[in-house]
Amino acid sequence: MLLFNLGGPEKLADVRPFLFNLFADPDIIRLPLRSMQKPLAWAISTQRYRKSQSYYRQIGGGSPLRRITDQQAHALELALAARGITGRVYVGMRYWWPMIEQALEQISSDQITHLVVLPLYPQYSISTTGSSLNRMNQLFGQNGKPPAVSVIESWQAEPAYIDALCRTIKEELDQFPTSDPAATHIVFSAHSVPVSYIEEGDPYLKQTQETVSETVARLGRDRPHSLSFQSKVGPVKWLRPSTDETIRRLAAEGVDQVLLVPVSFVSEHIETLYELDILYRGVAEEVGLKHYRRAPALNCRPDFIEALAGLVERNLEG
After folding, report:
1. What is the CATH number of the domain that holds 217?
2. pLDDT tier at 249 (50, 70, 90 boundaries)?
3. Domain that residue 253 falls in
């Protein structure tokens, strides 16, 4: 099994090269001339890295994403073994170590003949799963005969995943002073993507809406909720409303209990630990929203790991 994830700088010195790798990806920034990709990535990373370093400094000096993803890989190996499935789980990051290149080198060295690819993105987007698959296929094309590969492209409505997500939400809902289901507004916050991607057929928005719909159906439709978007970069038109806008709107409407749910992230990293926990909490305090909580990312919750194991098992059976 090969787990895809974004990757993240583990120390402050990593931030600039990480940003370069990110913005050098043509699936992230699309340019008419490919020769301009690396110069533009250099310019953006040079301009942004000090500001980004300040964000990472506030969450401990680096991203925990590699550590968490390694833990998820180990937990998944154990969960599969308990189901009678023997195999190794590799980790391939798109923009930082261990990168897809290193994962595929190890897979080749281990003489793997059947590879199941499981992106740790519940919803498919060309900017996440698509980009990693493009890079994997490019590398396979350069290095002889690849193993047989099966890909779990998306799992936005996987019942066991939705159940795990609902449990994290319910655990946080129980912490609010008012337990009436109508008293707490649930804000599902997803990573934004350029609107042009959606217009060109990217299924990300539809799949994210499906995750929200399935989750609310299990929680009870009497739960007020919204879908908002975070983490946009650059001047192009991105999916809205932003999470910032949504928090301000809810406060203006008199809502005083809000639960933020990271709906496109399954691991803690900069978008949860800085944006949701620090940046948007600050917005909530600024507009006088009394009770602001955030559901934790699923990380290595046993029910979430079992959901991943179920996905892999069904893929092997199919």
Report:
1. 3.40.50.1400
2. very high
3. 159-294
Burial of 305 (0-12, 13-18, 19+ CB in 10 A): buried
Round to whole Å and give the CA distance between 214 and 207. 10
Q: What are the tens digits of pLDDT across the range 82-93?
A: 999 999 999 999
pLDDT for the residue 52: 98
3-state helix, strand, coil in the chain (%, to 5): 50, 15, 35
Number of domains in the chain: 1
The structure tokens listed for 134 are 């493009």
| 30, pLDDT greater than 90 | no
Output the CA–CA distances (angstroms, integers) from residue 10 to 19, 178, 216, in the order listed.
13, 39, 35
User: What's the CA gap between 2 and 151, in Å, rounded?
Assistant: 9
Q: Which residues contact 67 (CB under 8 A, 6 or more apart)?
A: none
Mean pLDDT of 6-22: 98
Q: How far apart are CA 21 and CA 230, in angstroms?
A: 21
CB within 8 Å of 239: residues ≥ 6 apart:
190, 192, 193, 194, 195, 198, 205, 229, 232
pTM over 0.85: yes
In a domain, 30, yes or no: no
